[in-house]
Structures are given as structure tokens and as C-alpha cells.
Amino acid sequence: MTGPTPPEAAGLRAPDQAGARPATTPPPDARPAVRHPDAPAPGTPLGSHYEHCFGCGPQQPQGLHLVARAGEGVEVNAEFTVKPAHQGGPGLAHGGVLVSAMDEALGSLNWILHTASVTGRLETDFIRPVPVDTVLHIHARVTGIHGRKIYCTAEGRIGAPDGPVAIRAQALFVQVSLEHFTANGRPQDIKAAMENPDVLKRARAFEVNP
């Protein structure tokens, strides 16, 4: 699951007066990421963590409908097809939509770690424009873990997994418990989700105790 969260709520130090912010690269004492024994096999479609998710949900008509598959190691491969509704400039993907696609792909690493986490910080570099009707191929991987913090990186390529790089991202995700979502979401949406046995089962399986 993805979605921005205030630094204090995620257990991160808020920016100080000098503008210091949480790093998106792992510290020297971070431990290597380990693929969870129950992670889907490489090549397995990961599906949607929530049917109304803007990034991966099938019930969002104007959503990204990003499709992710488990990769080797602690990695994910995803595809996002840029539709006319995702335009910024004429015939080009909106930059914010591309960031959302990268965020969704990075969040899909939760399936490989078998944990729940939210976006703490995300940095992106735009390399080249992405035209409408293009398939953006995204490769995401975890670079280190330090306590509740998950450090990860991704790159999106145009047209093919080995196509030209269009966007790169580095991110810091923070592991959270189920209460992060039940305490902060809109009540009617939380109620509907918790009444869905598949959603509840998945959430409980991925729950952590920070």
C-alpha cells in the first residue's frame, strides 16, 4: 500500500530549520533486503491491493491500472500504459501521473517483503518525455532496510524493458500496522474495505508490529 504520510506519523524526523529531510539512500548499517518465504514466485501477477486504488485498482475508471509482477530477488516489474486521460502537455504524460506510477511500482515491493508500508519520501528525475499510448516499463527493487525504513529505487523505460530510460526514482517507505489505514481513512471506505474478507485477510497477513 502506498500514500504519503506526515514524517512524525511515520516515525521520521520532521525537517529542521536547515531543511534537512530523510534520506532516500540506505545508511551504512542498513541490512540487505530478503525475499519473504511466502512472496509470490517470479513472474506472478501481483494483482491489486485495493480495488479502488488510483494506481492499481480495477474499479478506478481514470486510474493508472498499473500491472505488476514479482521479479527475482526483492524486485518487481510493472507496466503502465499512458492513456489520453493521463495527459499533461498535448500528447504527453503528466509528470505527476508518472510519479504516481513510480510510487505504485515501488509500493508493490510490499508483496515481496510481505509487509505493509507507506511512502515516507519519494524523489524523481525526469529524463525524457513519455508520449500518450506509450507503455512505461518499470523495474523496482529494495536497496536496504533499517528498522522500519525500507529504501528502494526504480526506473521507467519507454516501450520495452530495455528501452530508453524516461524516469528514475528513489524512495523511503516506512512499515506500518493496519491501524495506520483504519485510523486515518474516510470512515465509509474503511468500513466497506473491512467488510471485504479478501481485503481483510490480505491486510492482516501483511501487518507488522513496529
Structure characterization notes:
- The protein is 20% helix and 26% strand.
- It has 210 residues and is of the alpha+beta class.
- The chain starts with 66 loop residues before the first strand and ends with a helix.
In angstroms, what is the radius of gyration? Answer: 17 Å
Listing every helix as H and every strand as E from the N terminus to the C terminus, the arrangement reads EEHHEEEEHHH
Q: Compute the separation of the termini in Å.
A: 16 Å
Proportion of helical residues: 10-25%
Strand content: 25-35%
Strand order of the largest sheet: 1-2-4-5-6-3
Average pLDDT reading: 84
Point out poorly predicted stretches. 14-18
Dominant shape: globular
Largest sheet: 6 strands, antiparallel
- Briefly note the structural class of the backbone: alpha+beta
**Number of helical segments with 4 or more residues:** 5
Work out the number of β strands: 6
